[in-house]
């Protein structure tokens, strides 16, 4: 009964998130001139859009290869091809689950552990390392974009705004890098202290939580995580290769945004695209699958406010961008998930 109720609860949550995404998209499209949006989409240059799709797929390949690279640094016996397919399946999970991007490392680690018959606790630390590298790459590319905007400002986004954001990102990159490189043990102690507070509060209501959050259990789990994380990031050369893959992925992702606007006849400065593409990840924090609906609304609003294009052209370009960076990736990840599921059933037979 408890399992059934939990299944119903999950189903309702997914349904509500899809409904919210549909509502946001509907409000976006029907609050504007739908005929103009349709005309822009129909007149789009599909050869340019194909290049955008290639960039989007290249970005996902880079990020998944980065994950595979880090995982094989921790354990080189893991099968490379199956790891890549499992990483694609994990990406599919991140994009279709409500708040999937927020719990990206856990979703990705679960899919990979299932795909290669591994243990979640062994896979999670190196996957966390790869997700941190990916996040660092997004900050680096956003910084590159801001430097470009400082040199060649665009209307509505000049001077003090660029300087403040650039300074914030630079400080964030430095502080984050120092923390991960030299203060991991300190982070581990903070996790243990937080867990002890939860143990004192929640342990009174649940014996299971009390056991899971017991100081000795948390200390053991944190120590195991840090040791596995260190193994995955010990080889500096391999770490540099993984970081380069992550950076290349974000550069391709920004280029896909510029090309999507070019497909509807709008020139979007590459520097602005390199800043906006990583920053748009904030919209995925809303409880919709992969930021569906919220990303489209946020991106359109940004480009209209910056006078990049009319609301209708901006909407059309953003819809095309999401077509190649969201729906296309969902399709590829879904195929990988189906293939892995079929291979599991064949093995059982």
Task: Outline the fold blueprint.
Layout (H helix, E strand, L loop, with lengths): L1 H29 L3 H9 L3 H29 L5 H17 L7 H12 L4 H32 L7 H24 L1 H19 L4 H6 L2 H18 L3 H28 L6 H10 L14 H12 L5 H38 L1
Helix pairs in contact: 2-14, 3-4, 3-6, 3-10, 3-11, 3-14, 4-5, 4-14, 5-6, 6-7, 6-10, 6-11, 6-12, 8-10, 11-12, 11-14, 13-14
Offer a quick outline of the entry.
The chain has 349 residues and is mostly helical.
Report on the structure:
The chain has one domain (41-180, 236-348). The radius of gyration is 22 Å and the shape is globular. The protein starts with a helix and ends with a helix. The protein contains 14 helices and no strands. The longest helix is centred in the last third of the chain and has 38 residues, at 311-348. It has 349 residues and is mostly helical.
Q: Which segments are poorly predicted (pLDDT under 50) over 5 or more consecutive residues?
A: 1-7, 344-349
The number of strands is 0
Number of domains: 1
The average pLDDT is: 79
Q: What integer value in Å does the Rg equal?
A: 22 Å
The proportion of residues in beta strands is under 5%
Distance between the termini: 30 Å
Largest sheet: none
Order of helices and strands: HHHHHHHHHHHHHH
Structural class: mainly alpha
Q: What is the 3D shape?
A: globular
Q: Quaternary status of these chains?
A: single chain
